[in-house]
Amino acid sequence: MTARVAQPRHPALSALARAVRARRVERELTLHALSDRAGVSERFLVQLEAGQGNISVARLCDVAAALGTSASELLRDAESPRRPGVIALLGLRGAGKSTIGPELALGLGVSFIELDQLVERAAGMSLGEVFELQGEAFYRKLERNTLKRLLADGQDAVVATGGSIVSDPDTFELLRRSATTVWLKARPEEHMERVLAQGDERPVQNRGDAMAELRALLRQRSPLYAQAEHVVDTSLLGVEGAVKSLLGALCTT
Q1: pLDDT tens-digit series, residues 38-86
Q2: Do 14 and 51 touch, CB atoms closer than 8 A?
Q3: I need a surface site. Which of 87, 116, 153, 155 has the fewest CB within 10 A?
Q4: What is the pTM of this model?
């Protein structure tokens, strides 16, 4: 099988892509809704927001009007210094979110935040207590509302998300619309080893075949994690290599 090689994006198109996407997210428009308003195909908008659509002046005016702005304003936004925004790290426990996250945040000059800690603070109890006393539905709602508040703050940050956040379609869609998503990919054995090395033996307590369960969970969630904008294999790169790879990708796209 011949590997597809992505064509390098022109810096101006990449900058315009970020400006268009930021405006769309700010106005809470889906690609489908923007497509209807601007009179351009949804497929073209996907290419535009990927920095691969060389848009004409006329079409840019149509898109800008649909976004409640002007072509000149979008281009001005594109020329402004880029801010990191929110970088959301995805993956199961043991993916490396709590180790890679702080190093990545340091490299980007932003804060590192663990979303579950904000959820616990909002609930006034631990996650274990939330699930035991209130149930999963309560946790999902609290997680989504906490994420909304974090995104509304406009703070640039690297955010470690809970491993199951991709299982809630609404919350995952919100995250994908409003943040740059990164899947920290690892082999099942790496996940288990890292969690146990942290002194957390919950994955193996009272479980007949904890590794089989972990593999099954990873198979189930991998297609969702793979929807992230960036995928970094931490088993191959390690912490330092993963941080270097992400800094390179995030600072040039």
Answers
A1: 999 998 998 888 777 788 999 999 999 999 999 998 888 766 655 678 9
A2: yes
A3: 153
A4: 0.66
